[in-house]
Write a structure and sequence with these properties.
The complex is a heterodimer of chains A (96) and B (596). Chain A has 4 helices and 4 strands; from the N terminus they run H-E-H-E-H-E-E-H. Chain A has helices at 3-8, 22-38, 54-60, 86-93; strands spanning 11-17, 43-49, 67-72, 77-80. Chain A is globular. Chain B contains 20 helices and 25 strands. In chain B, the strands form 5 sheets. In chain B, strands 5-4-7-8-3-9-10-11-12 form a 9-stranded mixed β-sheet, with helices on both faces. In chain B, strands 17-16-18-19-15-20-21-22-23 form a 9-stranded mixed β-sheet, sandwiched between helices. Classes of the chains: A alpha+beta (96), B alpha/beta (596). Strand 4 of chain A pairs parallel with strand 6 of chain B, so a sheet runs across the interface.
Chain lengths: 96, 596
């Protein structure tokens, strides 16, 4: 049941990274690939580089990099890591 | 590692001086710790604080930051991986640390916990975190940082190699920023984080154990690169003001010594001690239950109050009101002093698991009352818990504290046996400057109290046993009598005294008789002397009478002869002349012109 509305509305994501650190680079690649595959045309990804904007991490309570935040649809959810565990990421993105 | 550290310990001072140029110490403000490390943690380096749960790792780290902020105006960052920022503020409040007010300028607490439902989707790193921290460090101008419970976050990585990589990332970051850091970590029995020992400059191990039902925390410095340190295990005390180590204190005992004497409250006892207790000394009164130890304490307290000195009376087995009432029965009045505030009485049960805490509470009481004379009745209530060396140290330290404050203290110690048993008074008796023992002597169906001075440092003292007598009108010490090899006390002593008195009376009478007799014979002799004198006078009178009579007779003869010559017409003259001029061989030169 929750899968349906999730598919219809736009997926808004924010990914916190640390410059060109390997995990961060990998995470960016992973999230882009996933969205292109499963949410084509219905997603927006904001990438925050903590090396240049450290204050944002404090405001959002980000401890490790990379951290992916799903802002919409609600509820807000987060995962940490370089997003190579695609199955886990999809579970969150689908709101399940 | 341990062996190495121990070997280092004696060379502590020398090494500390030698390394002074290269290594700067940062005081932690933890009393005792700065002492054993000759100044604190290595500045600009990293210290690893290890320990199981509840050891005080976080307190150690937080106190270092708080003291830095308060004492030396150093700003710092606390990264909490295990507890929430709110919890930390609450914990700090227990020790009177006002984190919220510090947080505005001097201290930043970062809640670095991941929510329990955080899903891990692959490898992560701490690059972002360190960047965030760096921004904060620059903003505050911080010099100190704590990573509290780093392992909580790192275990999420679930890969020892990756964990190690992140730890080295932190190490490099710390080296670059030049911060003084404390990393706290749980010990889990594995050697998973063993490599960290080599990475850091200082390793502190905290322990929490239960000994004889008492919680016992301790601290040991395992490693300190470039510096000597006290390598022993030191007991930790958690007080209202934070963490403190019980160190053995200065090895050299140095107090201001005075010859001033303080009355024991019992004049006879003062006399036995050649003037009383030394000011600032500690006195132990030992004895079986009911031997009037508390009464002696009250006498001491009352005497001190009478001199106008402030007295603290700490009792562990009787209520204050009870003591005051009981001691009134032997004529000691404490109530007025209590009312005037000179005498403070504290009655508590020895409670709580930690003996160090008890001593610390006592120390605070002594200070707050500005105590000059102290009574602890009985000290054995505390010492019975002194089953481990650390606690005996705590007692020693407490007594040292009293000495340095010049507080005269009278302690009692319960000893059940009728005789002195050195073993039961472990420690205290050797620390005590004066040791008075009160025992029961059972004899002729009665029990009496015998008081002896076992020892008294720096003062001559009586070696006599005295009987301690309690009566409505007061407490006194009486001589005991030794008769036929037995010490006489109580009724036996009274009887002996009666006999003595009778014997004395008897001897008084006979002396008088003797005196009279002597007087009589003296009088007789004087009389005899008089008789002789009179006799002498009579004799000499007789003698002179006789002489006078003889003279008259001669004169008579001469005059008679003249008469005769006249009558014979000088016939005799020729004869007389001839006789006088006779041949020389027959006559004498002078002749006898006078004739007869």
């Amino acid at each position: 049941m929750p899968a349906r509305p999730a598919l219809r509305s736009t997926l808004r994501l924010r990914l916190y990274v640390a410059g060109n650190a390997p995990n961060s680079v990998r995470a960016v690649a992973n999230v882009r690939a996933l969205c292109d595959e499963h949410f084509r045309g219905r997603h927006a990804i904001e990438i925050v580089d903590l090396l240049t904007e450290p204050q944002k991490a404090l405001a959002d309570g980000i401890i490790v990099t990379p951290t992916l935040l799903k802002l919409a649809p609600l509820p807000v959810q987060r995962v940490i890591g370089n997003l190579s565990d695609t199955a886990s990421v999809l579970v969150m993105l689908n709101g399940r | 590692m341990v062996a190495r550290a121990k070997r280092r310990a004696p060379a502590r001072k020398k090494r500390a001086r030698k390394s002074h140029h290269s290594l700067v110490k940062m005081p932690t403000g933890i009393e005792g710790f700065d002492e054993i490390t000759s100044g604190g943690l290595p500045r600009g380096r990293t210290t690893l604080v290890l320990g199981g749960p509840g050891c005080g790792k976080s307190v150690f780290a937080l106190q270092t930051l708080v003291r830095g902020a308060v004492d030396t105006q150093e700003a710092s960052v606390f990264v909490a991986f295990e507890e929430s920022a709110k919890q930390i503020v609450t914990n700090a409040a227990v020790f009177g640390w006002d984190l919220p007010s510090l947080e505005r300028k001097k201290l930043f607490v970062l809640d670095a916990r991941l929510s329990p439902d955080t899903v891990k989707t692959g490898e992560f790193d701490l690059i972002g975190l360190l960047r965030v921290l760096e921004a904060k460090v620059v903003e505050l101008g911080a010099t100190r940082i704590v990573f509290d419970g780093l392992d909580v976050l790192l275990t999420l990585l679930n890969d020892p190699t990756v964990e190690q990589r992140e730890i080295y990332r932190i190490r490099d970051w710390l080296t670059r920023t030049g911060l003084t850091a404390i990393i706290t970590q749980k010990v889990d029995g594995t050697d998973r984080y063993q490599f960290m020992h080599f990475m850091v400059d200082c390793v502190v191990l905290l322990k929490h154990s239960v000994m004889d039902g008492s919680a016992f925390r301790s601290l040991r410095v395992v490693k300190y690169r470039g510096s000597g340190f006290g390598a022993d295990e030191f007991p930790i005390l958690l007080t209202d003001e934070g963490m403190r180590l019980i160190t053995r204190g200065p090895t050299e005992l140095h107090y201001r010594v005075t010859n001033e004497r303080v009355s024991s409250g019992l004049p006879r006892l003062d006399h036995m001690l050649r003037g009383g207790f030394h000011r600032g000394s500690n006195v132990l009164i030992s004895g079986a239950p009911g031997t009037a130890k508390s009464t002696l304490c009250c006498l001491f307290a009352a005497a001190a109050c009478a001199r106008g000195e402030r007295v603290l009376y700490v009792s562990f087995d009787e209520g204050a009101d009870e003591i005051v009432r009981n001691v009134l029965s032997v004529g000691v009045r404490l109530a007025p002093y209590r009312k005037s505030g000179l005498l403070a009485m504290s009655s508590t049960r020895t409670r709580g698991p930690n003996i160090e805490e008890q001593f610390d509470a006592l120390r605070a009481l002594v200070r707050s009352h500005r105590t000059r004379c102290l009574v602890i009745d009985p000290l054995s209530a505390l010492s019975s818990k002194m089953s481990h060396v650390a606690s005996a140290d705590a007692a020693q330290q407490f007594l040292d504290f009293l000495k340095s404050e010049g507080v005269t203290v009278v302690n009692t110690s319960l000893m059940d046996g009728p005789t002195l048993d050195e073993a039961t008074a472990t420690g205290i008796s050797t620390i005590a400057d004066t040791w008075i023992h009160v025992s029961y002597v059972v004899q002729d169906g009665e029990r009496n109290r015998a008081l002896t001075i076992v020892k008294s440092r720096g003062t001559g003292h009586s070696n006599q046993v005295r009987e301690l007598k309690l009566a409505d009108d007061g407490v006194t010490l009486a001589d005991v009598f030794v008769a036929q090899g037995k010490v006489l006390m109580g009724v036996a002593r009274w009887e002996w005294e009666q006999e003595e008195r009778a014997a004395k009376k008897q001897s008084q009478v006979s002396t008088e008789l003797k005196r009279l007799q002597l007087q009589l014979s003296q009088a007789e002799a004087a009389a005899r002397l008089k008789v002789v004198q009179v006799e002498m006078e009579a004799r000499s009178a007789e003698i002179s009478l006789l002489a006078a009579a003889t003279g008259q007779a001669t004169e008579l003869r001469v005059s008679d002869r003249a008469v005769l010559r006249k009558m014979r017409h000088a016939d005799d003259d020729l004869r007389v002349t001839r006789k006088r001029r006779g041949p020389p061989e027959k006559g004498t030169p002078d002749g006898d012109g006078g004739g007869r």
